[in-house]
Amino acid sequence: MAKHTTQAPVLAMTRVTDTVWQLRAGWDGPVRAGQFFMLRGWQGKDPLLGRPISVHDWGEDWVDFLFEVRGEGTRLLSALEPGDTLELTGALGNGFDTDLPAGTKVALVGGGIGVAPLLGTARALRAAGCTVTLFAGFRDEPYVLDKFEALGCAVQLATDSGRFGHKGFVTELLNPTDFDRVLVCGPEVMMEKIARACLAAKVPVFVSRESHMACGIGACLGCTCHTKNGPRSTCKDGPVFPGEVLYE
User: Fold this and answer.
1) Fewer Cβ close by (within 10 Å): the C or N end of the chain?
2) Model confidence at 1: pLDDT above 50
């Protein structure tokens, strides 16, 4: 995929939780569910590299990112204000296939900030006439679930604390045989457990991997992951992979 970098205006910046932010930037290019951008929103060379952030949602002239502040790069992104300029490189990677027959029953499984790329995915699936259920897992207080409900998605919630929804792991809520397809994004341990359960039940499953990236286009090999077909770049060959490629 050709690398495309543009200077985009920051349209909105919203604090979702103490550590999670939603950034809306101007963008009128193509986007597919599950893709990501490399974001750079600061002057100078420190940090040197942009940050890979998945697409949360998008429209005709905007793109949303939901991200968690984890280090200096994301802290600087969270400090942006409407009217500032943001460097976007993308949209990058291979995303989720949402061109499915109407009536297809799809489970989306997200752990923590792993729910971020699932909203735009849910919107595209609902537009195709699919039935969508979100299984969301959080440590304690959930966020953005109302956006899925507004799309007509059923929502099942698990929290470590038990203050909201099921007390325990989101992996305990999903029965793969209730669905025609399962799409997953979140912690590696969670994704592997869901994927193996789906593979055992012979239900197609696709996982979106997270990785540190330098270039975002497969040139630096810094995000190489191991698959049954040999080493692959998370950014160029993923971030979405069929479950059997990673876990069989």
Assistant:
1) C
2) no
